[in-house]
Amino acid sequence: MRRRITFQQKDATQNTRGDPIPNWTDYYTCRAEIEPLSGRELMAAMQVQADISHRVTIRWPGTSITLTPDMHIVYGTRLFDIQSILDTEERHRELQILCIERVGQTS
Question: In this predicted model, what pLDDT tens digit does every residue of 11-67 receive, in sequence order?
């Protein structure tokens, strides 16, 4: 797990008229493995959720950290929208996160 990623969560802020303004703040930073899905893996992932492009694997963050599909992942200038979070074998050792990369958008 060589890549350093940051999970961001959306905060609710408002402009002067009371309209919501999307604002993302850093929540949790860790090491990860980012793998593009191809071939059979991509077909299997798409059975779960359409348009899955990457699998991100991290070590279990512990019970004090709660990761949700409402967050996104930042890796350098790349953004990944979280589609699902899987506790591998339900052993609390690692999480596999299925994502869609936002192409042409930066953090």
Answer: 888 888 888 888 899 999 999 999 998 755 445 555 544 577 899 999 999 999 999
The CATH code that applies to domain 3-12+21-102 is 2.40.10.270
What is the spatial distance between Cα 44 and Cα 67, in angstroms, rounded to a whole number?
Answer: 23
Please state the length of the chain.
Answer: 107
Provide DSSP, the chain. --EEEEEEEEEEEE-TTS-EEEEEEEEEEEEEEEEE--HHHHHHHHHHSTT--EEEEEE---TT----TTSEEEETTEEEEEEEEEEGGGSSSEEEEEEEEETT---
Structural domain spans, the chain: 3-12+21-102
CA proximity to 55, closest of 35, 70, 81, 73: 35
